[in-house]
Amino acid sequence: MKYAVLSDIHSNWEALETAIDYLSKEKIKDYWVLGDCVGYGANPNECLCWVFKKAAVALMGNHEKAAVDPEMRNGFNSYARTAIEWTAEVLEEKYRQKIPELRYLHITPSVTLAHGSPNDPDEFRYILSLKDAQASFRAFETPIGFVGHTHIPSRFTESSGDAEYLGPARYPLNKKERYILNPGSVGQPRDQDPRLSFGIFNEEDWSFEIVRLQYDNKKAAEKIRKAGLPSYLADRLL
Predict the structure, then answer these.
(1) Listed residue (205, 214, 157) closest to 181, CA to CA
(2) Residue 100 burial by Cβ neighbours in a 10 Å radius (0-12, 13-18, 19+)
(3) How far apart are the first and last CA of the chain?
(4) Quick one: average pLDDT of 195-216?
């Protein structure tokens, strides 16, 4: 079985639509969405509509939480806060009611899914270093943990202590090892590569693939500007 692992869509419909088209051609229909479908971009309702209809797993991200919990916005920078306040204003009521139902963790025999980190998942901690990863490894028992939040595709390996950036490629996994894997961001990559990023987990051959795709980022950026959101958020996509 193959699973698409998507994270940090951030209201970027152009990026999400491109990812969906690719996955459809690859005949992958099982989607795990690791949170932060909203925030930053101009199409929160469209992205949430797809996620709530199609995702087998959809998790709570800090931006979903902030969309319905104003106190959560206190920790946001000015750009993120402006965007999430705008999101809260335009969010359709049916999605506003469904957001609190999102889970912070999803666990199967093979994987643990979280937005930030499996340890204290409602605190949305970043896994940016080996030290961060070590604390997270102690918090889950499955062979693999999938996380998002950093917007950077990466791999952390428990016994070898490796921490590495992942470029677009297929990565075989060792069944005797434990991993934390990050698919990067569909809607707002932060690794100096404007192409959208997501992962494909193959449970049969125990591999993880990072996929990078060009999409109409100029259109997504223009929609951000037309919505009256900070120009920085549009420029960041380019």
Answers:
(1) 157
(2) exposed
(3) 34
(4) 98
pLDDT tens-digit map of 133-153: 999 999 999 999 999 999 999
Tokens of 172: 């075989």
Query: What are the DSSP calls for 51-88, one per residue?
Result: HHHH-SEEB--HHHHHHH-GGGGGGS-HHHHHHHHHHH
* Domains in the chain with CATH codes: 2-235 (3.60.21.10)
Q: What is the pLDDT of residue 199?
A: 98
CA distance 153 to 164: 9
Report the predicted TM-score, pTM, of the whole model to 2 decimal places. Answer: 0.97
Smallest CA-to-CA distance from 34 within 134, 153, 131 is with 153
Output the average pLDDT for the chain: 98
